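Why predict the complex rather than its parts? Because the way molecules touch one another can change local conformation, and only a joint prediction can capture that. The input here totals 852 residues.
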Amino acid sequence: MAGVTRSAPLDRLMRPVHRWVWGDVDRRLRKLLTFAEVETDGGRDILRAAEVTPDPLLRRLYLEHAIDELRHGDLFRERGAALLRARGTSRSVLLDGNPLPGGHGLDDLRIDGEPDYRLLAFLHVAEKSAAGRFAIYRELVDDDPHTRAIFEQILRDEVFHMNYTYTQLTRISPQAYRRHVWHARAKRLWNQYLRVAASLAGLLGNAILTVMYFVLLPPFAWFAKREERREPIGWIPISRVRQDAPRSQY
Amino acid sequence: MKILGISAHYHDSAAALVVDGMPVCAVQEERLSRRKNDAGFPVAAIEWCLEHARLDPADLDAVVFYERSMLKFDRILTCALRAFPRSWRSFPHAIKNTLGEKVWVRGIISSQLGVPRQKIFFTDHHAAHAAAAFLTAPTRRAAILTADGVGEWATLTAGQGERRPDGGTDITLRREVRFPHSLGMLYSTFTAYLGFKVNEDEYKVMGLAAYGRPTMTEQVHKVIRRLPDGAFALPPEFFEFQTTADRSYSSKFVDLFGPPRHPYDPIDVESSEGRRFADCAASVQRVLEDILVDIATRLRRETGLADLCFGGGVALNGAANARILAEAGFDRVFVPPAPGDAGCALGAALYADRIYFRNPDRELPDHPFWGPSVDASHLARAAREDNQDVEGLDEGPLVERIAEHLVAGRIVGWMDGACEFGPRALGHRSILAAPHDSEIRDRLNRDIKRREEFRPFAPVVPIEAADRFFDLPPGGSRLGRYMSGVFRVRPEWRSQLAAVTHVDGSARVQVLERDMAPRLHALLEAYGRRTGIPVLLNTSFNVAGEPIVTQALEGYMTFRRCGIDALVAGSTVVTKPAAAAAKSSRESGAWSSSSVAASTVA
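Output of the joint prediction:
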């Protein structure tokens, strides 16, 4: 299995970061709970694929795959919850804020209307990448046999997922399967770029809006607070005019 | 006139089509996108509605959005200003979220559908709730009450509606309570405090409440104060929902009620901590009921009307609805099958038809089945391809066969005709089981629904037999038509209806008239002939975290991966062979080792 689940060079380069993440219990459990959501979401997406595919064999395989992903979600959730319980105090703040980036995100996956070859190629690439990363994580949680056991179990499934997606891709698209895989890799790279770009844009937007908040808003805030003090509470009559304004957004 | 109603962007988006004053179809986006509580612009729902009615967007006379988006933005901005400088963290998110898409609804509708902007209309959010409640109810005149988290500014409105003898319609909402003073937000705050998902898991609070005693009502009254005019106010020091989207309650709230429950902590109602949470749920439930009963009683006195139409997300609280019926003085209480925001799509379209365009009133069909129909041939084909045991049966033999399955303790997935509009499974997309044994309930919770143990299952009973098993007050069967009321199971039947009787002896019963779902009615009768009890456990056909199934293949996939024993769609019956059922149970067992923990997760 080690050969099949060889990590990507980038992941090997990122090993110190992974070690930093998995070396701390709080970060570890946040990561596990994030994985739980990602796997469950991925499972539901693949289930959808099983519902819409016209191919009976793929339907059975997708279903099996979806059941695996949903089970992985449960395993991660159970382990995260166990770590959370073991932490005891200050648990309520642990999950506030944004979670750490997920493992093998199937998020934003469009199923309806997509041909099976595209989904299979995407799944193959995603599963391969996840398997490589999970192999690293497994080594980094040596001090935590329960979490390690989960990764081992999931890795076995990931190998099956990698293999069946590739086999089926070659079956349904024998002429062009390599192109589909490369296309999926390129698309995955593009999506990663978009995610990073969107995050940067979001940060920039937040910074600008925060500056605006403190520079522009104070006088308006003063007026708003003054109006609030004057505003009646309790029942307020409804203006008939508003009910008779069919085209107004106000 | 052809009018399309749309609700979108907050939770549970939907589309509905009204042609010549009659609803033609309505569906929530989640039923088509398969993402629970899908709040996105309901492209799939709109496409399906137009396709179903064989219309092009150009054929539409009007498209009506269920709220005034700029007025909502006004509220969001004003709240951020009022909370200055504490709102600095949430301000960028709120502005990006709102300005990113939500305020440009007119442009979005126009570009997505290609309809001219002058055909696009807006209603007040609560006017859409009011219309959904009143215009779908079989009554000429009624008081109207709407309550939810918040619309634009209003959180609760009161008024009345009338179908005039000349065919015209009036809906007059006279007064409102405004944000942040909100019964819905109060309940949602407790939902968050108890570790459940806001806008999704409020019904879990109601389920949990039955395990507790209302010992903390005094504290709850500190966070919701009654006013001399009969309204209420939420003191801002206990809440944070008005200033941030990250947290609903303040540290003062925690000082008052104790540490909140973490979403990943299990709820053990036998433990002292579990009892505290249950008591907390019981207390907020009691206070909510008391306030609603009081407001409804005043409305009854003011209007002198015998009927009440109740809409908005708060109207999903069946225990409160039953108390309003019993105590507020109304003869009948009408709650539509989709009282929440999804129902506003239909409400907005009907409101525009009757109020804006002054079209004459028409009597509407009194059923919830406005969604896509199930195609049994898809199920038969897929099941045969998978070497499943498939049969095609005529109506009579099918009903008898399924009744036998149910008597034998098997669990049945039931898909019949068009799917329901709204959050309840009312007999067309249901999982059915025998109601007698609590073991069935545990099996459903553990292996199929995969949800918390404390949550009850609902019964369905023919109207002719309802009074025999359930203590229904006058008007109770109407409230039970769409599973909108919680009533007592008669004590002598509780042991025989253990799977559907909640811990406090109550049940959220569906009272079924033959005309509404004749096939299910026939099944209840067939089951009754065999057992003497024409009652079945009826729960929505889905797994936790997923929308209710719509198409046959969605039902089939759910059937394949969990412990449902037989699946019915149209005339097709698929039965799991004994060996496969055992295998499926083992698979579920593998899941359930983790689902014990998962079932405690919100």
